[in-house]
Design goal:
It contains 10 helices and 6 strands; from the N terminus they run E-E-H-E-E-H-H-H-H-H-E-E-H-H-H-H. With 271 residues, it is mainly alpha-helical. The chain has a domain of 61 residues. The strands form 3 sheets. A two-stranded antiparallel ribbon has the order 1-2. A two-stranded antiparallel ribbon has the order 3-4. A two-stranded antiparallel sheet has the order 5-6.
Length: 271
């Protein structure tokens, strides 16, 4: 039986536009392997310099956890990103309650985010990045090829007297020769450790105890009740001000969408 390839339908491309795509590589296992390693996954890796996609087969006996969607703030500066995703929000199924409607809109937008096709500019940017990466890999390969020569290894990483002398000089420069405590000079190693430990322990302080000198339940006795303004329904302006006060780079909620998405798409999703 075949282990399904996650995240990619094809393993080879001719790199043309439009491309020719084919699945040339597969991973096959028998029944014994399936029962022994239930958490076996088959995933692709990046192919910066080859037509073929490197494949990674992971085998484990632990039960896998489901992947959680997380909205990335880096998607927002991309051209036509919101124009591609927001129509899915408005086309979500209609629910009778507001919470269900919001969940349906988030689910529809999440699916559109995963399936969004690259624009022409993004395709060109990806090609440029691949070319630059290929050049960087060639330069790094040439560098390590030169460093791997016998002479470079012998002269550059030899255990010579010069390296020992250099390490000795560095040790002398970093050594604390003596410590002065109350006009007394301490040069012994153990005594210096004890003096430094006592000093930092004294400036850190000693743990203390706290006591309540008042009755907590009596703090709000005979106080006025909240006014009607505080218990009134939230307005659109209040919701938007609360959204603007949130950190745009904070962790997203359980639905995977963070404050940056709601701020960027507020005019279309505020209802």
């Amino acid at each position: 039986m075949e282990i399904p390839l996650l995240g990619r339908n094809f393993t080879w491309s001719n790199g043309q536009e439009p491309p020719i795509l084919a699945k040339l590589d597969r991973a096959l296992v028998n029944l014994a392997h399936t029962t022994t390693f239930p958490d076996t996954s088959h995933s692709p890796r990046a192919k910066p310099t080859s037509d073929h996609t490197p494949l990674f087969l992971s085998m484990s006996t632990s039960i896998p956890k489901s992947s959680v969607f997380r909205f990335e703030n880096a998607w927002l500066p991309r051209q036509n990103f919101l124009q591609t995703v927001l129509p899915a929000w408005t086309e979500a199924r209609v629910c009778s309650d507001a919470a269900g409607q919001l969940a349906a809109c988030l689910k529809s937008a999440r699916a559109a985010t995963k399936e969004r096709a690259l624009s022409f500019d993004e395709l060109q940017a990806r090609k440029t990045c691949i070319d630059y990466l290929a050049q960087a890999i060639k330069e790094k390969a040439a560098y390590w090829k030169q460093c791997s020569k016998f002479r470079a290894i012998r002269e550059g990483d030899a255990n010579t007297a010069f390296h020992h002398a250099q390490a000795t000089v560095r040790l002398r420069n970093n050594t604390i020769r003596w410590v002065e405590v109350h006009s007394s000079v301490i040069a012994n190693h153990d005594a210096k450790i004890q003096a430094l430990t006592n000093f930092f322990s004294s400036i850190i302080g000693d743990p203390g105890t706290s006591a309540w000198n008042f009755d907590v339940h009596a703090l709000f006795h005979d106080r006025q009740q909240p006014s009607s303004v505080l218990i009134a329904p939230f307005s659109e302006l209040e919701a938007f001000e609360a959204l603007k006060s949130m950190d745009r780079s904070s962790a997203p909620g359980p639905d995977g969408f963070g404050p940056s998405f709601y701020r960027a798409a507020w005019s279309s999703i505020k209802s």
